[in-house]
Write a structure and sequence with these properties.
Low-confidence stretches: none
Number of strands: 2
Structural class: mainly alpha
Number of domains: 1
Helix content: 40-55%
Number of helices: 4
Largest sheet: 2 strands, parallel
């Protein structure tokens, strides 16, 4: 019973931390993305098997290898680029 309570407590903390870090992140829906596809860099963070097994992929999305900052630098992305991250 203590393990279940501890797991629940940890999940609550993780949810709080994730929400706190996401405060400054803007969200975009699929219709707005479709209307402005040329304005965004689209990054697909799914792992190999999840990506391969999916029937839904956004044309032109990139899949970074390693550190996203190093990947962005190697691609020459502007510091003020509009980047959309997705994993589903």
């Amino acid at each position: 019973m203590k393990a279940i309570k501890l797991a629940g407590f940890i999940l609550m903390i993780l949810a709080f931390v994730a929400t706190a870090f996401a405060e400054g992140v803007q969200r975009i829906d699929k219709d707005a993305l479709k209307e402005n596809m040329g304005s965004y860099i689209i990054v697909d963070f799914r792992t190999g098997s999840d990506w391969k097994g999916s029937e839904f992929k956004i044309l032109g999305a990139v899949r970074p290898k390693g550190n996203i900052v190093d990947f962005a630098k190697s691609k020459g992305w502007a510091k003020d680029a509009k980047i959309v991250f997705y994993c589903a």
